[in-house]
Amino acid sequence: MMTLLQVKDMQTFIEQYHILQGVTMDVTPGEITVLFGRNGAGKTTTLRSIMGLQPASKGSIHWKGESIERLATYQIARKGIGYVPEDQSMFYDLTVGETMRIAMRRQDDRTMERQEWILNVFPDLRTFWNRKTGLLSGGQKQMMAIARAYVNDNDLLLIDEPSKGLAPIMVEKLMQSIEMMKAKTTVLLVEQNFFMAQTIGDRYYMMDEGKIVHQGSMQELRNNGEIRRKYLGIA
Amino acid sequence: MDGVINLLVNGLATGMLVFLLAVGLTLIFGLMSVLNFGHGGLFAWGAYGGVWLYGVTGSFVAALIGAVVIGMALGWMMERWVIRPVYGNHVQQILVTLGVMLVLSEMLKVVWSPNPLKADVPPLLSGSWEIGSVILIKYRLFVIVIGLLVFLAVQLVLKKTKIGLIVRAGVMNKEMVQALGIHIRTIFTLVFMVGAGLAALGGALLAPYSGVIFSEMGMQFAILAFIVVVIGGMGSIQGSMLAAILVGLSGSFLAYYLPELSLAGNMLLMVIVLLIKPSGLFGAKG
User: Fold this and answer.
1) Which residues does A83 contact at the CB level (< 8 Å), separation at least 6?
2) What UniProt keywords are attached to this protein's entry (chain B) (predicted)?
3) What predicted TM-score, i.e. pTM, was given to this entire model?
4) Distance from CA of A202 to the nearest CA of B (A)
5) Over 70: is that where the pLDDT of A21 sits?
6) Nearest-by-CA chain B residue for A149
């Protein structure tokens, strides 16, 4: 199957620290690929390097066969990659409606349809359309961040730890919504919550100390307690 | 009571002039994290450009529009060639923008004259209205109206247009704006040009107000504008408006009632506000 995103030997430094020490991974269209790993393994930096927010100093990133590692963040986003950061990065003084307005690169029928669809998935956003995003609850902020990335016709969403700091019921709801998106877009999901992510993921990559140490289908990870214990500390 | 009303009008008019200078400064700092000490130079160029254009065309409207165009053109050049190489480095920004301030100031002497220039109030706006025993100077009221109109226009653009929302979002989180596919550098340049244009408008309006302009006037007003931006909160337009009015009024009233405190008044105001709210009146950043 054609690869949507191909990362080869990506190395990233933050100041003098060698954070990513050769990340190689593929993202296949129509799947949910989950990137697992402990805190500090380099998962967030991997997403930020793909987006050009923390440019890689070595290695290559190919999007639909085209090299993108030297492009600016806005150019990468325009290629069709949406980003949901770990901290949600709300425009705290803008309302939900205003945030959706600036997120839309086009205001055509297709984009409006996508907005309708995501508002049906996250009805809270419709309810609080005129509320400043800084005043939303943690779960609603996460919905806002996902909706903001989804509303454009992106072929890939990079979602960074959406379950962080949320109640289990909210995490379950978010995972369900990400699974619903799978029919419309490909997802590269960073997660530490194995039990939730394994319910929706098709394939996984395991990161440790800035490298990919294991990869395979989610079924293989479900069956491999040793890897889970070693890298995630769970049985 | 008449004296109080006159002081009020004076204070508000001065406040509006400082606001025009501060509005660009606060947006430039809020969005681009750039400390632009050259902003006062644009104010002075607006004043000289306005006086010159008024002399050439005889039209005050053309003079104001021309001053804005001069300011925007200088702003574009400044952002493109001076500020862009020093994004992210405050020390370098202070040094190069102070250098720009000096160059702009000296260039005024070369282009026009090293001596102060006289600036006339246009006939339509000269004189005053007498309401009872209160004398209202027309030009000062005109300055207040222009200041309020600019404030409303900036608010309207920032709150109702997509470009305005992007600017506000950029002040809050530049990185995320880029991740949405928006070229923030273009927005930076645009904001810088608009800020420079408004500073130049402030200068062009100040010229007939003070009656005389001189090449160092930019620095004098830039200090006031920096005080206003700090009091109002970095990046906040409402904060700048309120702070500019406070600075204008305190300057006006202190100069009349406590002249020995008039120079220290603005600094005291800033100290009091910062002690109570370190991020400024409307500031979200620490």
Assistant:
1) A47, A51, A77, A149, A157, A158, A160, B179
2) Amino-acid transport, Cell membrane, Membrane, Transmembrane, Transmembrane helix, Transport
3) 0.85
4) 26
5) yes
6) B180
